[in-house]
Amino acid sequence: MTPAFLQSLTGAVLALEVPYWVSSAIKLGLVALVIPTAALMLGYVFLLKMMSFMQSRLGPMEAGPYGSLQLLADGVKFLQKEDIFPEKADRTVFALAPLVVLISTFLIYVVIPAGPDAVVAQLDVGIFYALAVSSLSVVGILMAGWASANKYALMGGLRAAGQLIAYELPLVLAVMGVVIQAGTLDLQKIVTAQAHGEIFGWGGIGNPFILTQFVGFFIFLVAVQAELTQPPFDMPVAESEIVGGYQVEYTGFRFLFFFMGEFGTAFAFAALAAVMFLGGWALPWGDLTHWGFNIAGPVILLIKTLAVATLIFWFRFTYPRLREDQLQRLAWKFLIPLSLVNIVVTGIFKVAL
Amino acid sequence: MNTADVHQRRQMDYVASQAADARLNLEIETEGMTLNIGPQHPATHGTLRLVARLDGEQVVEAEPIMGYMHRGYEKLTEVRTYPQVTTLINRIDWLGSFANEVPFILAAEKLMEIEAPPRAMWIRTVLFELSRIANISLFLGDMAVQLGALTPVFMAFRDREFVLNQIEAVTGGRFHPNFDRIGGIKDDLPKGWINDTKAVMGRIRDFCDEFEELVLGNEIFQARCRGIGIIPPAMGLSYGLSGANIRASGVDWDLRRDGNEALAYNQVDWKVWTHPDGDSFARYWVRLQETREATYIVEQLLDGLPAGPIMAKVPRIIKVPAGEAYSSTENPLGEMSYYIVSQGDLVPFRVKIRSASFSNMSITPWLLKGVFVPDIVTILASLYFILGDIDR
């Protein structure tokens, strides 16, 4: 295929006049496809392979090349399992809870840009929207914890609620530095601001905000880790204390929904971090409006996302779990003051330079 | 942390738990919750059941309920001949099986007035220490996994495998050797075993160094363990704690050194490790040092292994003369004792087994008062019990 052909093809696709509802349906279908793909990819690369490597285990090898079909096999296993409702559970809420978690994940993907035109919805308040919908998952988790009619689930749900609310704040404040530097909430414009930016007058590699906002990046990663309820912040699901927390009564496909929600959200947050701190789909060289970025962009974004995800999962596999009060102390006494200082310093530099 | 601090903290905990108790009785407050931890729960590694009354996440009172794994070993020994008993008691503390056999055999030898030849005693001691390493190295990983770090437990399993291989090379059994005999041991060491074992001991020391950095050096691990589950020495002694649990409270007491059994510990140069703090961190620290110390003990024993027979003159059919004998050793989990009453039959008349975990667990109602739910797991893991050792 020649570039000219590709250009005409993408041009044709983009210029295609379709009714609004059809294009919306296509885009939503694409996003719906991306979530399980992303979750499976992270699950395979990190959970099955990297974790096994770090823990001197072999990991799956038999199902497909290098065991790559193991997760599909696991998915089929989940499908075959009995769908159990606890006797005293609130059936409607119990059934809805995993969907709410998954929908929250789904809604984040809508605004993540993967190319100059490859974005489902370009919102002026993109980053604000992404962080807002990501916290919807706490509703689903509370629903799951309450509706299971199980003491462990209730404790897990309440722990999750306390934790997610506490870490929402550093998450938002960490992003503020990026927003100040880029001067916009629009994720697409944040990407271009990084590609065209300069660090103290030197624009050789643009200005990926990780270089100037490294404190923000650190706080963002820690807060994301807590939002994902992964070690060292996995008290809501602590399997050695409260045996899985809010997931304890879920079986089969509903449990798989939680699993996909967790890994899908991990991917979404890693992608957000890649967009905000690593330059997103863009490279600092070349014309950002070039059609080729619609094809190269997703690949570049994927590589950067996996780099961030490596960090996230590395923490996950190495650290023990904090206690609930220690977690709150870390959030309120360390991360939030630090992010406030970061905002002030960023503001001073922004005004002074 | 000195004793005054410990007492102050206990008093504060007591006040807090009393306050929690009072809150439970107020009608405007929410009701407390009774949480049933176990018998199927990952933190109880087995079938321990813990009924905890909670106020929010704080424990008002907790009571361990044992017996879900009671297999009646004391009664079963009364219908087994003496050589058959070792097969049973192997299963008491299933991670350090060989160590279970030794005190029983020693007690039976006392009754029969037989003394095992020196070589047998030394090999017994070597295997005893190997089973200690096999047992405690798993604790080192398990404690981390209870606190949420998954990786160390796999490393523990990886390096424990080498010790199990050495035990298997001598006894033929990885978990349940059943190797100790009245009057000696079953077989001599295989060829080349001594050098292999020394190499494995070096590996275990590397493992200990690794864990000292990976687990003990971790800030989160320290934050979770320091000051949690403090046992003052007097309290520990009054509950009959033994082993690393009491040594972590600063009590310098080790039956390997202070006991009067004829094992070869007095022939080698080694140290009893104690820690003044008495908290969960101290218990982990003491066990880690003991594992490393055990490798030195094994190496020294292998260097000075005396030649000679491995079996004393023992009648073909073992009939133990009437009488009573008591023998206790420092097992991986703590003090383990057997009290044998014989009436001159092929089988013992009565065997009383004093297992370490049963006494170590008895302190939990006192220790868990006023702690938070995550600390239950820390404390249970650091007390280190094995269900077979509790219920027998």
Structure description:
The complex is a heterodimer of chains A (353) and B (392). Chain A contains 13 helices and no strands. Chain A is globular and about 65 Å long. Chain A has 353 residues and is mainly α. The model of chain A has no long low-confidence stretch (mean pLDDT 81). Chain A has helices at residues 3-15, 20-54, 70-80, 91-109, 126-134, 137-147, 151-182, 187-196, 209-212, 214-227, 252-277, 293-318, 324-352. In chain A, helix 2 crosses helix 11, helix 4 (91-109) packs antiparallel against helix 6 and helix 10 (214-227) packs antiparallel against helix 11 (252-277). Chain B has 392 residues and is mainly alpha-helical. Chain B folds into 2 domains: 6-65, no CATH class; 73-391, Cytochrome-c3 Hydrogenase, chain B. Chain B has a 3-stranded antiparallel beta sheet with strand order 1-2-3. In chain B, helix 6 runs antiparallel to helix 7. In chain B, 50% of the residues are buried. Chains A and B meet through helix 7 and helix 13 of A and strand 1, helix 5, helix 6, helix 8 and helix 15 of B.
List the helices and strands and how they pair.
The complex is a heterodimer of chains A (353) and B (392).
Chain A: H1 3-15, H2 20-54, H3 70-80, H4 91-109, H5 126-134, H6 137-147, H7 151-182, H8 187-196, H9 209-212, H10 214-227, H11 252-277, H12 293-318, H13 324-352
Chain B: H1 3-25, E1 33-37, E2 49-55, E3 58-65, H2 73-76, H3 82-89, H4 97-112, H5 118-146, H6 151-171, E4 180-181, E5 184-185, H7 193-216, H8 219-225, H9 233-238, H10 244-247, H11 255-258, H12 280-303, E6 323-331, E7 334-342, E8 350-354, H13 356-361, H14 364-367, H15 373-383, H16 387-391
Antiparallel strand pairs in B: 1-2, 2-3, 4-5, 6-7, 7-8
Helix pairs in contact in B: 3-4, 4-5, 5-6, 5-7, 5-12, 5-15, 6-7, 7-12, 12-15
